[in-house]
TrEMBL record, chains A, B:
Family matches, as Pfam families: ADH_N_2, ADH_zinc_N
SUPFAM superfamilies: GroES-like, NAD(P)-binding Rossmann-fold domains
Positions of the Enoyl reductase (ER) domain: 25-341
Keywords for this protein: Oxidoreductase
Domain of life: Eukaryota
Name by which UniProt lists this protein: Alcohol dehydrogenase
Record CDD domains: PGDH
Organism this protein belongs to: Aspergillus steynii IBT 23096
Lineage, opening ranks: Eukaryota, Fungi, Dikarya, Ascomycota, Pezizomycotina
C-alpha cells in the first residue's frame, strides 16, 4: 500500500463552466498521508470506482438547494465503490477487510469513514457490486421514484425520456415499459446512443437531439402526444416536449443538465401548454424517499435479474486525475449508461469477498 | 322592444394585440332583426351584462387548446346575465318571461338559446343575480377548484395570488384565508387595488407589481417563502414567485394574462427551483370540474353570505360597443373585481322576478 492519499479539492468557482485543468482550474490535487491509526468508529477504505453525477455542478454553486454546496477548500463530494482495508475496533462486528461498500468518500483514493458513510454492498443473485452505483444505486432509485411516484405511466401511454442513454434515463425508460407504456421514446445526443436505446433496450423510437430536424422527429414519434415526460435535460428539450404534451400529462422534472452551466437559464417558452393541457410538472429529489429505498431496490433487483431492466456502465480509466475532465465530458454527454472513473482496478483489490 | 339586434362579429385576427376599433378592427358591428318566431326548444333572451374574461384572447387564436377557437365571421363568444323575454312552446314548464339566466349568448343584445345555453339563476339568500357571473359563477368556481383541488393550502402556510384584484384572484385569496393560510399576499397592478386587497379583503400584504422594487417587496412579504401560488399572470411574476418557492410548494396555474398577447411568450427562467424545492406546478381548467359545481357553489354561497368572501364588480357602461375596448382594458388591468359590460340597464328589464 502506498503511503500517500491523493485528493481532489474544490478550488475555484466555475465561471460558469467547470475548468478541468489541475493547474488553477476548478479542482486541485492535494496529497496527504494515508492514516496509520483507524479510530474505533471508522473504517479505512480504498476507492475503486468514483461515481460522476449531473447534480455535481449544482453542488459547486452556493444557492438555496436540496443539499449544502461544497465549500471551496473541501474535498469534492462524491460517491464511490470502495473496499474496506482496515476496521476500527468498534465496527469489527459490522465490517471486515475486503468488504465492498458504497462510500461517501468524495474524490480521493483513501478515506476514513463512519458507518453511515460506508454502506456494505449486498449483491443480489445475478447482480454485481457496481450495480450498487447504477441500477441498484442512486440513479436507478431516481428513475424509480420519478416514474413510480411522480409521473405514474399507465398502460397504453406514450412516455418520453430525455437524457435517455444516461444512467437514470435508461432505467426510467425501461421502468415505463415494465409499467405497460405503449410507446417509449428516448432523446439522446448521438446516433450510437439512439441505436443502443432501440436495439439493446427496445425503445420504440430514439431521437438524436443534435439532428437538425429533431423536433419533427419528436412529433412523428409521438403521434398521440406525450403523456409522461421524464426530464433530465431541461431547456429547449423540455420546451419541445411541453409543446407536445397530451391532456393531463405528467412531467417528472428530475434534472436540467443543459442548464446547470448556463449563466442565464431558459424557462420553457411553451409554458402556456401547462394550462391548455392541464399539465402537472413536478420536481423531485431522490433523497426524499430514503424510507422507501428497500422496497424500491427489491423491485429493481427483480427486474434486473429478470432482464426487464438492462445495465450499462461507462467506465473511464486513468485514475483520480481523470475525474474533472470526465465530469466535463458528462455534461457534454459522452457517456452511454452510468459514468464512473476507475481510481484503482479490481486487480489491485485485497482479499475480495464479493465478485466485482 | 327595438326591432334590431346588434352583434359583435370576430372579424380580424389580432396581431397580436386586440384592436378595439369597430372600423376594420378585431371585431365589427352587425345588425340583424330580432327573431319574430321563437322555436319550441328555444328562449329569446335580452342580454343585460356581458362577462369579460382573460381567456377570451386565447379563443381568438387557432391553437390546440381546451376549447375550439372562435372562427372569424362568428359572433364573439361570451357569457352574460340575460333576461328571458319569450319562451318556446317546449320550454314553458322550465322558463317564464322575466326569468334571469346565465346565458351563453355571445356578444349581442338578443339571442335565441337552447336550455343548455340559458341557465336559470337561483339566488341564494344574501346573494344577487350578477353573483352568478362572479363569486357564484365561472370565476368563483375557478378560484375554488384551483385552491381546493390543485393548490390545497394548509393551515399556517403562505399563499400568494397574482392578479389578486381580479374576479378570480380576489376569491382565490379569500378561500386561502378560509382554509387557514397564515399569510395571504396579493400582487396587483395599482396602489388602489393593493389598498382594496389590504383594507377591504384583509390580505396581509399587497404588492403593486408596477413598483420598481416589487421583487424586494415580495421577498419581504414572504419571509417563510411561498407554499402556494395561484397564478393568473405568468411571465415575470410567475418567475419571481418560483424563485421564492418553499419546499414542496404547489403552484396552481390558472392563467397567464401577461402572455396572451405576447408574440413570443417567456417561460419562467427560475425553473431550476422546480427541482431544488420539489415544486408541483399544475395547469387546470374549470370546465373539467362541472360535476363538482353544485357542491362548490354551496360552499361559495355559504362563505359569501357569511361575509367570509366579499364580492366586487367592475361594471362598464356604454352598451355593446364598449365590449372591445373593455376587453383591451381588462388586459391592461384596469378592473378591480369582476369586469362586465352593461348592455342594457336593469331599469329596462321587464317583469323582474329576481332582484338584480
Amino acid at each position: 500500500m502506498p503511503a500517500a492519499n491523493r485528493q481532489l479539492i474544490y478550488a475555484n468557482t466555475p465561471s460558469p463552466a467547470i475548468d478541468p485543468s489541475l493547474d488553477n482550474g476548478t479542482f486541485k490535487l492535494n496529497t496527504t498521508p494515508i492514516p496509520d491509526n483507524v479510530p474505533d468508529d471508522k473504517v479505512l477504505v480504498r476507492v475503486h470506482y468514483l461515481s460522476l453525477d449531473p447534480a455535481m455542478r449544482q453542488w459547486l454553486t452556493a444557492k438555496r438547494s436540496y443539499i449544502a454546496p461544497v465549500e471551496r477548500g473541501q474535498i469534492m463530494r462524491g460517491q464511490s465503490i470502495a473496499q474496506v482495508l482496515r476496521v476500527g475496533a468498534g465496527l469489527q462486528s459490522k465490517y471486515q477487510a475486503g468488504d465492498w461498500v458504497v462510500a461517501y468518500s468524495g474524490w480521493q483514493e483513501y478515506a476514513l469513514l463512519g458507518a453511515k458513510e460506508a454502506q456494505k454492498v449486498t449483491v443480489p443473485a445475478g447482480c454485481q457490486p457496481t450495480d450498487a452505483m447504477s441500477v441498484l444505486g442512486i440513479t436507478g432509485l431516481t428513475a424509480y421514484f420519478g416514474m413510480m411516484d411522480v409521473a405514474k405511466p399507465k398502460a397504453g401511454e406514450t412516455v418520453v425520456i430525455s437524457g435517455a442513454a444516461g444512467a437514470t434515463g435508461m432505467v426510467a425508460g425501461q421502468i415505463a415499459r415494465v409499467q405497460g407504456a405503449k410507446r417509449v421514446v428516448g432523446l439522446a445526443g448521438s446516433a450510437d446512443k439512439c441505436e443502443f436505446l432501440r436495439r439493446e433496450l427496445g425503445f420504440d423510437a430514439a431521437i438524436n437531439y443534435k439532428d437538425a430536424d429533431w423536433k419533427k422527429q419528436l412529433k412523428e414519434a409521438t403521434p398521440e402526444y406525450i403523456d409522461v415526460f421524464f426530464d433530465n435535460v431541461g431547456g429547449e428539450i423540455l420546451d419541445a416536449c411541453l409543446a407536445r404534451a397530451a391532456k393531463d400529462a405528467r412531467f417528472a422534472i428530475c434534472g436540467a443538465i443543459s442548464q446547470y452551466n448556463a449563466a442565464k437559464p431558459q424557462g420553457p417558452a411553451s409554458f402556456m401548454t401547462v394550462i391548455s393541457q392541464r399539465v402537472m410538472m413536478k420536481g423531485f429529489i431522490v433523497l426524499d424517499y430514503t424510507k422507501q429505498y428497500p422496497a424500491a431496490l427489491k423491485d429493481l433487483a427483480t427486474w434486473l435479474t429478470q432482464g426487464k431492466i438492462k445495465r450499462k456502465e461507462h467506465i473511464v480509466p486513468g485514475g483520480l486525475e481523470s475525474a474533472p475532465k470526465s465530469l466535463v465530458d458528462l455534461y457534454e454527454g459522452i457517456n452511454t449508461g452510468k459514468m464512473m472513473v476507475e481510481v484503482a482496478p479490481v486487480s489491485e483489490a485485497i482479499a475480495v469477498k464479493a465478485k466485482l
